[in-house]
Write a structure and sequence with these properties.
alpha+beta, 10 helices, 64% helix, membrane
Length: 330
Amino acid sequence: MQTRFPRWLLTLGAMLFALYPVALAIFSFYEHPETGDYLWVSLALYLTTMVPTIAGYRSWQIPVSQALFNLIPALLIPMLLLPNLPKDSIGTYGTWFVGAMATMLGATAMRGHPWIAAIGNASVVIQVVAWGGLASIASTGIFGAVIFLAAGWLMYVGLSRLNAETEEYNQRAVNLAIESAKTTATRAERERRINHALETASPVLSRIVSSRGLLDDGLKQQAVRLEAALRDEIRGEALITDEIRRSVNDARTRGVEVTLLDEGGLEDLTDSERVALLSQVAAKIDTVSQGRITLRAPAGEAWRLTLMATRSGEPEPDIWLKLGTREPAQ
């Protein structure tokens, strides 16, 4: 079982750690009172940027404006304090701000802006080395500042990857829910059509049973049309609307052979779009008085619907209709 720490607890721990340089700054005032008001201004700058960087914002990423604002103390605090510190203060609390900037910039890197944090970190390092020489690298916390930046950067990479994987997982879950809903809707629609077909067939079937198989010509024709209608409900699926059902039945009454084949070409249309498209087809079917009609909804082709009406002995179809241009796949 996975254990998740509350965000407030993690934030509290980070805040307590970030306040440690504040304590060092106060101690440094007693060691180096010459920093005077510059120290308090520097502390104010640090706290103003550190608190929202660590504890602010609901998203794990802070705004770019906040990250850019964090450059201000990284640039100004060394400029305010270093000219007022004697060179022999290397290794004392006087360079507290190096750790403070490392904490704040490490958090900036972790929360989505590693390059901005790197610029701020470089500013601190350059100013400290320019003030204390290369000897200051080992005793002012510069190594720690670089490590903090690297750690924040690595955490940013990990969080970005985790966020991307989470979004991908959520999208897969949404797609699965959509597919499940489509399947449920398709199943419900199929059941509705089957029930409708059975209700329609029931009177004719009852007459066939009562006649004990002795069918007159009229009943035979009704049975043939009924068999075709049942086949339409099974193979026609999305092609079946009340208007299509009526037009096909009328065409068969006129002696026209009609075949409906739904191969999935209408799946991504709304009901209103599907009905409007099939209404055009029904109007064309009503004009056919003999021969054979084939209505298809092909999948993976440039057209959503094709309607062909042919007559025996005629080389060209009477109707060859393509409807519903499909948008090309991106």
